[in-house]
Amino acid sequence: MTAPLKAADLGVVLPALPVDREYDPRYAEVVEISPLIRRVLARNPSPFTFHGTGTYLIGRGKVAVVDPGPLLDEHLAALQRTLHGETITHILITHTHSDHSPAAAPLKAVCGAPTYGFGPHGAGKRLAGVNVEAGGDMDFQADIEVRDGDVLAGDGWQVECVYTPGHTSNHICFGLREEQALFTGDHVMGWSTTVIIPPDGDMGQYFASLQRLQSRGDRRYYPTHGNPIQAPQAFVTQLIAHRRAREDQIAACLAREITLVPAMVAVIYSEIDARMHPAAALSISAHLAHMVANGRVTMAANDAAAGAYRLA
Length: 312
Prior knowledge:
The protein is of the alpha/beta class. It has helices spanning 73-82, 104-111, 203-214, 232-255, 261-268, 277-293, and strands at residues 30-34, 37-41, 54-58, 62-66, 87-92, 115-117, 144-145, 151-153, 158-163, 172-176, 181-185, 220-223, 297-298, 310-311. It has a 7-stranded mixed β-sheet with strand order 1-2-3-4-5-6-7, covered by helices on one side. A 5-stranded mixed β-sheet has the order 8-9-10-11-12, with no helix packed on it.
């Protein structure tokens, strides 16, 4: 009986990422990060959120809140307690997944600050008629829609908006100029790679957004989940190499006549917990869509129903 094929049998070396999973989850407490940055962690740990959503506070006295997080009474109370005696002037939303934006509405109801974001869930693709996945916060609508290059000014700080579609079509990062720091939402995380869920999630856009960050001079990244990333350009370079090698693994599967996504997942992710395979299938599907778009892979019309792919 032939042994099941494993990732190592594909002959592709997948560059290891320097992931950081050492983390002290201090829920409902304020953590001092830098002279201008504090963080409050929501108690919503999961395989997709790591230990939970880290809500960042920019400034002192008059502050911006980045990604208020999920609808959790404990978290909202912690934010209000932390900011007692201070004024929230901006509520910034990186994107509209349910662990990032839902708490914006009750927070705004308390403080009256406007919300800022690229737009509603799927805003980057709706005009093209793309139906987005249902896992988003469909109720969110920014009071003020921002675009790439916009600068938001507060009391002692300035934030530049950096449009980074890929994880979602409305994903935007926020660069704190005073500290050359970038709040990266889910675009770049130090504890794990980012899940890309088509059709709103787009691997081609994700690659382009990563390459754009390489040209910036940010000194530190603050993802919504996990620790700060201390050497961001090097990390992004390794992340791009990791993603490209993943596509080489997919091509190696196709060369072996492994043409269906579940079969690819079973080989490429043979070493990880099978409970994560559904998420891995989404990532593989996103890579395949990118490979079809750039001409590396094709899906013949008679294969469409079966979902089989071929090397071009």
